[in-house]
């Protein structure tokens, strides 16, 4: 069975963190889950504040290179324990953990093809979907992406939905009404016919 990338966007980090905890409790290995959160407003999430004065220079100055920093911001033994500061081209500093971080910061990937859009398209999402998710993160959202086998896809999507993932089509329509001219998501696939990279 082929693994697919199941992706959901959350308005705040706390809801996304609950989804990650529920996925791990359901037996999804944390090595198959990724989280990327852009905290553009202080107090907008349950994450501790990032003190840029305490971060190594490369965490702040590497927005064009996508360098990672091993600063641990969380506790516990799961995925959230590995949260670190990451500079993503086009987004700037975010906190992130999981397998998608490696795809976003892959060596040899140029800024045009790399970044979050490149990582998501490499995981199987369409360019329009990837661009829309990247816009959601840029606007302060939190992205959770899970690699799951076909047999577990339905269960993963149910967990993401129940945790409060947003309707990306609806949100993108609102952004377009405000003048955003980015990617298109298209209709949400039926759960019986999920493609390799699936967004919610």
Low-confidence stretches: 42-76, 107-113, 187-196
Percent range for β-strand residues: 15-25%
How many domains would you count in the coordinates?
Answer: 1
List the secondary-structure elements in sequence, H or E.
EHEHEEHHHEHHE
Counting helices, strands and paired strands, the structural category is alpha+beta
Shape label: globular
What is the C-alpha radius of gyration, as a whole number of Å? 16 Å
**Total DSSP E strands:** 6
Major sheet summary line: 6 strands, mixed
Arrangement of strands in the largest sheet? 3-4-2-5-1-6
Q: How many helix segments?
A: 7
Q: Kindly report how far apart the N and C termini lie.
A: 21 Å
Helical percentage = 25-40%
* Mean pLDDT score: 74
Please explain how this structure is put together.
With 200 residues, the chain is an alpha+beta fold. It has one domain. 34% of the residues lie in helices and 18% in strands. The chain has helices spanning 13-25, 57-61, 99-104, 115-122, 127-138, 150-162, 168-177, and strands at residues 3-10, 33-37, 84-88, 92-98, 142-149, 197-199. A hairpin with a 3-residue loop joins strand 3 and strand 4. It is globular and about 40 Å long. This is Heat induced stress protein YflT. Residues 177-200 are annotated as: Disordered. InterPro entries: Low_temp-induced_all0457. Residues 187-200 have a biased composition (Polar residues).
């Amino acid at each position: 069975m082929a693994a697919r990338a199941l992706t959901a966007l959350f308005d705040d980090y706390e809801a996304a963190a609950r989804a990650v905890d529920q996925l791990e409790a359901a037996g999804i290995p944390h090595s198959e889950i990724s989280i990327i959160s852009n905290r553009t407003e202080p107090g907008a999430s349950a994450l501790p504040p990032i003190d840029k004065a305490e971060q190594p220079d490369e965490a702040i100055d590497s927005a064009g290179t996508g360098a990672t920093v091993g600063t641990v911001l969380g506790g516990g033994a799961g995925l959230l324990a590995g949260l670190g500061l990451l500079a993503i081209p086009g987004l700037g500093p975010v906190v992130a953990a999981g397998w998608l971080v490696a795809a976003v910061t892959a060596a040899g990937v140029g800024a045009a093809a790399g970044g979050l859009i490149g990582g998501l398209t490499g995981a199987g999402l369409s360019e329009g979907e990837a661009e829309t998710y990247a816009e959601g993160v840029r606007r302060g959202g939190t992205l959770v992406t899970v690699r799951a086998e076909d047999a577990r896809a339905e269960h993963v999507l149910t967990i993401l939905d129940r945790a409060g993932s947003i309707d990306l089509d609806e949100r993108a329509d609102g952004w377009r009404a405000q003048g955003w001219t980015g990617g298109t998501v298209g209709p949400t696939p039926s759960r019986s016919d999920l493609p390799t990279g699936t967004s919610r």
